[in-house]
Design a protein that fits this description.
Length: 289
Amino acid sequence: MFIIENQQIKAVINAKGAELTQLVHKENQLDYMWAGDPAFWGKHSPILFPIVGTLKNNTYLHKGKPYQLPRHGFARDKQFAVEEHNGDTITFLLRNDAETATVYPFIFEFRIRYTLFENSLAVTYEVVNAGKEEMYFSVGAHPAFKIPLVPGTAYTDYYLQFNHTETAPRWPISPDGLIEIAPLPLLENTNRLNLSKDLFQQDALVLKGISSSIVTLGSDKTTHGFRFDFPGFPFLGLWAAKNADFVCIEPWCGIADSVTTNQQLEDKEGINKLTSNETFTRTWTVSVY
């Protein structure tokens, strides 16, 4: 485990998967991250790369050849190297290797940089195409925040507030993890989603192309919460394991396969493309109070 800290907050990150496991506000002593109880969901904040979500039959096609990838890809299970580590910043690096080549035929560098500033943690994903051919990928975040956040409050005392009024449906997920073609109502001319465990009984709430790039966790019962900024991420997932005391706020550059997919990687919804030596960068930030 690696620690970065400043005067206000401390973050703990595991080199396996470069996974954030704790985010503690020093003054109020709250840890905002889900503790990873395996009875519900034994993770904290896995990183999704080089796919987000599930592939049809766990398979994609590239240049006429089938490749198998598990849900959310392989990065969350790989050991990252530490490229840089000082007091309030750490950078992890994952490169392609013989193991990744069997499931993902691209030469890449994937960096994850955690940086603290005052009461905020910024998480930057940097993907470099280190090969000569065009590279296709998705990348996403999956941080789980503890709800209820403070003693004496209940899960239903909390809400998510978007920075724009939204009318946005959710895109249902099929039993085999694919995106259905018919959306269902979710946000109707509102900027607020009240949390309840019933929300997630049918898997994640998947949103496409919303106007908002900020979600705030609020409650009428406590002044503690957080602000979550995710500019440049076209998809947003909201999820919790059934009856678990957390909520995942998941900004994605990419999405699970549609039930109508042709399985061609370059045709995949939300796929990102890099030419040789090109770099892709996205950052999300959580500010705790």
